[in-house]
Amino acid sequence: MSTHNEQATARPVPSPRGVGQSVADPATEPPDTPFGALRSVLTGRARHLYGAAVLRVGYGLLYLVFLLREFPHRDEIWGPGSPWTPALTRQLFDQTGWVSVLTLSDSRLYFEAVYALAMLTAALFLLGWHTRVVSVVFAVLVASFHAKAIFVTDGGDNLILLMALYLSCTACGRRWSLDARRAKRRAAAKGHAAPVPPGAEAGRPGLRQQLTLCREELTTALHNCAMVVIAVQVCVLYGAAGLFKVQGGAWGNGTALHYVLNLDLFRPWPALSSLVDSHEVLLTVICYLTVLSQVAFPFVLFGRLKYPVLGLMLATHLSIAALMGLPLFSGAMIVADAVFLSDGAYRWLAGAARGRLRGRRRPPEGVDDARPGHDAPEAAHPAGTDHGEPVGAR
Amino acid sequence: MKAAGPVPEKTEGEAPAEPPRPVSEHPRPPRLLRGTVSLIVALLVVVASVHTVMVFFHVAPRNAVSQRYGEQIDAWVYPFFEQDWRLFAPNPASANVQISVKTRQEMPDGATRESDWFDLTALDTSAVRHHVFPSHTAQNTLRRAWSAYVDAHGAEDVPHSDRAVMLRDYLRNIAADRVAEHRPGPFDAVRLRVETVPIAAHGAQQVSPNAVETRDLPWWEVSQG
Where is the composition biased (Basic and acidic residues) (chain A) (predicted)? Predict the structure, then answer.
């Protein structure tokens, strides 16, 4: 993926490797063992930082919108006045091992305070403010709300919970965030003389600097592992959804969508649902496409075929959002799919968006990155810095 | 093994490129420290791999592995990573569930007064209608409470487990809260009627009234009026 830093912004279509970020970088240190190779891939550089940032913004925004949307129903869903009473919640927690900050007190005031905190946390998470700490708080709160209202949740809530847990292990605040802006300003203030690697000032680095280095290697490895887990999680999701569908007669004979379109609770626009329902041939085709794309999903990710399939998934989820009144679920799925776009693709999209904002005037390729304030930081790393890094080891 | 050089994530997103530093300037953490890092990285890789395998067998259709190692899989996955992606599969529901409630009030003279049926599902359906972002309270609360009740009770309405009792109380609370919100007056018991209305196959005009299945639930006392 970003092994081709110098080309990344110039190329509209990113490298087909997709999730294959774990493929060893040919330029990195020739490791002596397979584990050595894996270790340097994992600790060397945090990968897919734009993808992580998109997930952060996506889930932060979705959760914030969700909490605002359910604000009038907050007591019924999560509060002390819910039909799933605090006593029932505690009884279930004793059986399942769940925990929630919402059961620490049954006072109305406490609940309102936690609700406000959850909205604030979602907003800060989305903005990427002190992301490491905020992402952990976000995960704790999402889990708490999920656990308290476990019988009101659906697949969308479930996916947001999983992603919140995984994202707390990633460096999702390094791009497109307040943290990134702060880091950039700090660096600009220091000027060109600045970035001295910790420990390099003196000939013999102190223990503290060494510990810092190790910590950074570990957070990088944690981030990379978490990103792989997120990608695999999405594949497992589609794979399982597909495996279950191929077992069903209605998906096999192409009539499944007829029944889905006639569920009263998922028919916000009955006239529209009926209209779609009347096109039997179209429904059959979409039905088979759904099953095929879900089953095939994990296998298309390593080639260019992933773009049409991701586009198909996007279209599916947009239709589900509108036709079935499930925008939260669909949003959660769309954001999850976004993990499969490479950093190159994101930089290209960001560049295109910026170009659009500036009108027709388009800078020549590559120029964009050299401009101050442009957040395509990998461009500030000609291959030499990134890949020359391990030289020190030998 | 290598020592981390100029730590990339520190400088990424910032200032201009910096030439690679000469070898001698690279700090090289002592062997023990590097060993510890390697160990933790190995642990991370193992945890991540085990996690993805566990999650896969947790969500996959029943199979030899998930039957044989069910306990270990559950121990790993529950509670935080529980998930279910059956999403309208193997087959989407082919019926709409219509839940109604009636209330009963005992009079001072010992007689009882029953209300007529109040359609709880109609409330949900009308809350969903023409809404871009329907609330979970309309789409999920009653629907999932009923399916959880059925899972715990089967065809009988006598609870045989703690969980069944809890889910009965939950369903009763939902019904009581909602009817109290829409109909004034006290009551001391509620009773549900659940009608399962099949969705007609494509081409078929209407579902015959005989196809509708009705389940009458017993009276449940409620503590608050």
Answer: 362-394
